[in-house]
Amino acid sequence: MSDLIDDPRPGQNLPEYTVSEVSGAVKKTLEDQFGRIRVRGEVGRVFTARSGHLYYDVKDDRNVLACTTWKGQVSSLSVVPEEGLEVVVTGRMTAFGGQSKYNLNVDEVTVAGEGALMAMLEKRKKALAAEGLFDPARKKPLPYLPDIIGVITSPSGAVIRDILHRLRDRFPRKVLIWPVAVQGANCAPEVARAIEGFNALTPGGGLPRPDLLIVARGGGSIEDLWGFNEEIVARAAAASEIPLISAVGHETDTTLIDFVSDQRAPTPTAAAEMAVPVRLELLAWVGDSEARMARAMSQRMDARRQRLRDLSRALPRPDSLLSGPVQRLDVWGERLPLALVRSVEKRRGRLIEAGASLRPGLLRRALEERQRGLKATSLRLSPSLMRLVDQKREALARRADRLSVQPILRDLRGKRERLDALSQRLSTAGQAQVKDWRTRLDGLDRLRETLGYKETLKRGYAVVRGDGAVVTNTKAAKAATSLEIEFSDGRLTVGAASAKSGGKPKSSPPEQGSLF
Amino acid sequence: MSNTPVDEMSFEAAMAELEKVVGQLERGDVALEESIALYERGAALKKRCEAKLNEAQEKVAAITLDADGQPTGTTPVDPQ
Fold this sequence. Notes:
The structure holds 2 protein chains of 2 kinds. Chain A is α/β, with parallel strands linked by helices. Among the domains of chain A are: 2-112, CATH 2.40.50.140; 145-281, Response regulator (Rossmann fold), CATH 3.40.50.2300; 448-516, no CATH class. Helix content of chain A is 53%, strand content 17%. Chain A has helices at 19-34, 71-74, 114-130, 158-170, 187-200, 231-239, 256-260, 268-275, 279-314, 318-356, 360-402, 406-451, 453-458, 474-479, 504-515, and strands at 36-48, 54-59, 64-69, 86-96, 101-111, 148-153, 174-179, 212-217, 244-248, 263-264, 463-466, 469-470, 483-486, 491-494. In chain A, helix 4 (158-170) links the parallel strand 6 and strand 7 (174-179). In chain A, helix 4 (158-170) runs parallel beside helix 8 (268-275) and helix 5 packs parallel to helix 6 (231-239). Mean pLDDT of chain A is 85; it is low at 497-516. By secondary structure, chain B is an alpha+beta fold. The mean pLDDT of chain B is 84. The longest helix of chain B has 23 residues, at 32-54. In chain B, a hairpin with a 5-residue loop joins strand 1 (59-65) and strand 2. Chain B has one domain (6-64): Orthogonal Bundle (Helix Hairpins). Chain B has helices spanning 11-27, 32-54, and strands at residues 59-65, 71-76. Classes of the chains: A alpha/beta, B alpha+beta.
């Protein structure tokens, strides 16, 4: 306020602030003026910064109030603001000079009216049910006797104590506690992570994987339990491969995780009861089983023994069974040698009887008889043989007779006679023929003689030949070298040496010519 | 009778079979020799059940988490 002391300059009588001064003044005024207030409105857009701080708006139908919740405050919120949720936020008004903005630093959020909250829960339920996450077929049976039980809950408080006590009463087991916040904004992410973390463990590892999970929380307001209505928790529980019991709140409180868990327990204590059987009861049962087994065994044995006794009583004594046969054996045994002897004697008698007729004389006689028979037969044999031979020979002779040459000779003779006759006849016929022919020849010759020129010659005619040929005319006679004249008593050559042509041809031809 | 070695059976399986064996013996519809074998099996099963029941041992531990919420180990918890 030094400017009040300074000389006033025109137009500068108004106080002058630096930006930071006015920002600080505004911030101070806001904080002082409002203090801690409650504001009701609907959550607008929500933004979680990387730093972990939460920025969101709370609005009504006309205005918007920027809200912040620092990282350290988030875990103490009973309800994490969610867009559309009607809330009452509690905090201090403040300003952020860096952006010339004012906002409400919220340290507590409550849901304004359960109706709104339940409506939201119903919406989620419907969505998850539509995905089939509540399907009874998805629910896994709990192990009868789990070795290790994983409990997801607050490590302090009555809930874990109740569970451990009830487990110890029934059947002490190994328990692994995964500590989580069971309310506030961290509740849902921590519970979801714990479910996933237990499932990620390896069975029998350094951190052994439990075979049963219990998610537990004591009773509280709907805002307190709200973390178990978060979708991430429900999804983690649905995805758990380890069977999971949910035990959140009291029996009347139903949260979203109860719909997806494999079994819902009304209280944490009830969850412990579901988790393990009662050891002493089992021990008693085992003992009872043993006793029943032994009793059944001995009863059956007794029954069998009794039956055996009854049966053996009904069984006749062995010697009484045997006495008859033994007696029979004795009787037959005694009679056996005697019967044997008698049998042999009987057979011997029959042998003797048969042997008596087998004397050698008898045999010989029979032999002789047969010999005689043989001889007689053989005697008969020879003549009959001869007779047979004679017969055959005669038959042969008969045939041979018929086969003699006489008939052939006779035949030959006959044939020769006929040949002779024929030859005779042929000869006679031939001579006759010849005689006939000679007669005729003589006749003809005589005829020829008479007709021939020789006869003519006798009557004075001559034949003239010149050079061998008959000359019938003078011309030829003149030409001939010599002429030969034939007379009836011989031939005469004319002009023998000089003239071959002689008189023969001259004379003969007119003779001949005149003749013919 | 199943062929699983009794020593490898879970409590539940051993118990279920023991129950069956007792039932069979009580009905008495098995031959003598078989009933002896059944009885022996039953005795072994009973022993197995008892052993599993006597294994009952309380051991409670809490998982320790690092800053990222990852499990790092356990610390014993006194269940009182």
